[in-house]
From TrEMBL:
<protein>
    <recommendedName>
        <fullName>Pyridoxal phosphate homeostasis protein</fullName>
    </recommendedName>
</protein>
<dbReference type="GO" id="GO:0030170">
    <property type="term" value="F:pyridoxal phosphate binding"/>
</dbReference>
<keyword id="KW-0663">Pyridoxal phosphate</keyword>
<feature type="domain" description="Alanine racemase N-terminal">
    <location>
        <begin position="21"/>
        <end position="238"/>
    </location>
</feature>
<dbReference type="InterPro" id="IPR029066">
    <property type="entry name" value="PLP-binding_barrel"/>
</dbReference>
<dbReference type="InterPro" id="IPR011078">
    <property type="entry name" value="PyrdxlP_homeostasis"/>
</dbReference>
<comment type="similarity">
    <text>Belongs to the pyridoxal phosphate-binding protein YggS/PROSC family.</text>
</comment>
<dbReference type="InterPro" id="IPR001608">
    <property type="entry name" value="Ala_racemase_N"/>
</dbReference>
<feature type="modified residue" description="N6-(pyridoxal phosphate)lysine">
    <location>
        <position position="47"/>
    </location>
</feature>
<comment type="function">
    <text>Pyridoxal 5'-phosphate (PLP)-binding protein, which is involved in PLP homeostasis.</text>
</comment>
<dbReference type="Pfam" id="PF01168">
    <property type="entry name" value="Ala_racemase_N"/>
</dbReference>
Length: 241
């Protein structure tokens, strides 16, 4: 076996082992939360990850990948094709919407009216409906995008009549901290917001997804109700920027 083949085999074993550990941790967190048997969707965050390693993850059963930047999503979509579902999880500029329409399973980062209008317009032009999550900045961090919690209901009511986007749930990015009480409060707040929205019985809207939890906090997020986790470094190792 040559050096390249040896290296790729090592990467495959490492990625497969990492995914197995994560899946075990997901099951344990579900059990702790009394959610045995429920499904948590694992999105492999592939920011800066090369295609060979992504394909190794797909070969171990990963069916969904998340990208932060439109140009990376486009590049990987062109190379990898429809072997995997693509999620736009980063901030989405309005002028880049045309580049991803029809390519995503879910846009996680809807956070303003101008973006909703553009997504709706481009989706209508392509005769599709684009599924979206509303990004909520629960902790109100200046460094993060997203709506404040008390603005979400008003935002939903402004875009409910858009026919070519469908709200499927909520997303948040929690603060990077070891303060578990703070993290639980962030995740619990988003869960409670989801329940409030469900109780209002809006038309053309569903709260199927609660996308919260990353490498450092996904188990806590699951314990507080998450059913989508977005994990990068715990699968692929520390990123090289």
């Amino acid at each position: 076996m040559d050096k390249y083949s040896t290296k790729m085999e090592a990467i495959k074993i490492s990625i497969q082992g990492n995914i197995s550990i994560i899946q075990e941790n997901i099951e344990k967190a579900l059990n702790r939360a009394g959610r045995e048997g429920e499904k948590v969707e694992l999105i492999a965050v592939t920011k800066t990850v090369d295609v060979d390693r992504i394909n190794e993850a797909i070969g171990t059963g990963i069916s969904d990948i998340g990208e932060n930047k439109v140009q990376e999503l486009e590049k990987k979509y062109d190379i990898i094709g429809d072997k995997v579902n693509y999620h736009m999880i980063g901030h989405l500029q309005t002028n880049k919407v045309k580049n991803i329409i029809g390519k995503t399973k879910l846009v996680h980062s809807l956070d303003r009216i101008s973006l909703a209008k553009e997504l709706d317009k481009r989706s209508r032009s392509n005769d599709i409906v684009t599924d979206v999550l509303i990004q909520v900045n629960v902790a109100e961090e200046e460094s993060k995008f997203g709506l404040e919690v008390d603005k979400v209901l008003y935002f939903i009511e402004e875009i409910l009549d858009f026919k070519n986007i469908k709200i499927r749930g909520l997303m948040t990015i929690a603060p990077y901290t070891t303060d578990t009480m703070l993290l639980r409060n962030v995740f619990r707040t988003l869960f409670n917001l989801k329940e409030n929205i469900i109780n209002r019985n809006y038309n053309n809207l569903s709260m199927d997804y609660l996308s919260m939890g990353m490498t450092n906090d996904y188990e806590l997020a699951i314990e507080e109700g998450s059913n989508i986790v977005r994990i990068g470094s715990a699968i692929f190792g520390k990123r090289n920027y």
